[in-house]
Fold:
Amino acid sequence: MRAPRLLTSTTLPPALSALAVLLPADAPLPEAVGVLSAAEAAYLTAERARPTALVRLPRYGTAATLYVLTLPTKPTPDLTREAVRKLGHQLNGLLSSDRLAALSIIGVASAADFALTLAEGVILSAYHFAPYKTKPEVPAPVRLTEVTVVGAADAAVRKLAATLDGVFLARDLVNTPFNYQSAVQFAEQMAEAGRQAGYQTEILDQPRIQALKMGGLLAVNQGSPDPPTFSILEYAPPGTEQDAPVVLVGKGVVFDTGGLSLKPTPNSMDMMKCDMAGGAAVAGTLAALALLGAKIRVVGLVPATDNRPGEVAFAPGDVLTMQDGQTVEITNTDAEGRLLLADALAFAKRYQPKLVIDIATLTGAAANAVGKEGLALMGTADEATKMALHTAGHRVHERLVEFPLWEEYGEQLKSDLADLKHYQPGGQAGHVSAAKFLEAFTSYPWLHLDIAGPAFLTAPDSYRGKGGTGTAVRLLVEFLLSD
Ligand code: BES
Ligand code: MN
Ligand code: ZN
Structure:
């Protein structure tokens, strides 16, 4: 779905359906919201004295339903911002039960800086995905269509609106079931999003992938009745065409059964339509940058296929020749993501990139290490770049935990048969050895984001909702626009 519209205005719109006032605990209600009756004022004072941060004042017969939100006090501005997003989630719940479709937000005094963040939390919470429902909901829900932040700076509003559109796109792509999203369909979905947002897409088909000798992607695809795709997304506004790009590489496994090494754990396959979430984050990020008209060249590379057991599927013990000519011994066909990413990372060299970031639902080990609360970061880019990414992560609350690429972890990847083994059965720190494997295919500053934990949620979590979260879109937009 397209994100609700985000607008700014200099004054309160005349016909309000909902008005949220965000203000510090000690601040009085601004006069602009109108005069409260004595009973309303007494109720508000009593409620605001309690730890409840959100007071609802239905103003029957007058203009707006009023929501008064007390700005949370947290140790850092970033943590305050996150608490405000969560307030936005609560507010969205009230808006739907009050059946209100348009919201205006005013931030008072020091809370003014957080008014857009409240809008962010509300809009992210308003996401819903129902293209396969054939029966109307009864009673028909009223959906949020528009949020106006009074006094917000135009540039900040445009940036947030574009970012939210990118997140909604990534969520839609992740939530689309495998039977509606073969590798070819996924590539076409990304290309269609590019036509709407303003980035270019070139889809390399199976013969082109064969000509490029992408042995990793082709091997994973062997068990599938559907061909693989390799999508090249490019956003290069006039004047940036000759710049060294940032390249974003996204894992595009449209469904992961594990292949012949079929997933052994009960239910572990159930959510594996989410295994293209890295690719979705790449498309969402490019869409946001293009909608915004950002002055930066970014290339997205998304190798895509499903991973299935089939009569001609690749097998443990196979030796593959990868895009860059290195040979790889296969030990477990469920460690498939690194194979297609390796080909894409090798392919990325031809862009002479200033930085490559790959994003992937790569390992259960990363999910075990940081859970759904963070992204695992590894890579060879310099400290300043990593620090800038950490700063962006705190700002949008998609926080990173860095793991080391110590040489010793590479021991797991030694093979008697080929240049490299892609996976060590029973090895520890599986997210690190996966990254060590990828490192062997890079020759430029590189960062790897393992999003296996946060990409897809089986139970709702505040404004992140349930299902695809769009993880890494807000992070990457913030990071790419911050230098
Ligand atoms: N797609 C999975 C990783 C994953 C796990 C994503 C949980 C999202 C949630 C990946 O391809 C995989 O199967 N990894 C295995 C590798 C191992 C069995 C060789 C893993 O990490 O368990
Ligand atoms: Mn797998
Ligand atoms: Zn996978």
Notes: The chain is about 35% helix and 20% strand.
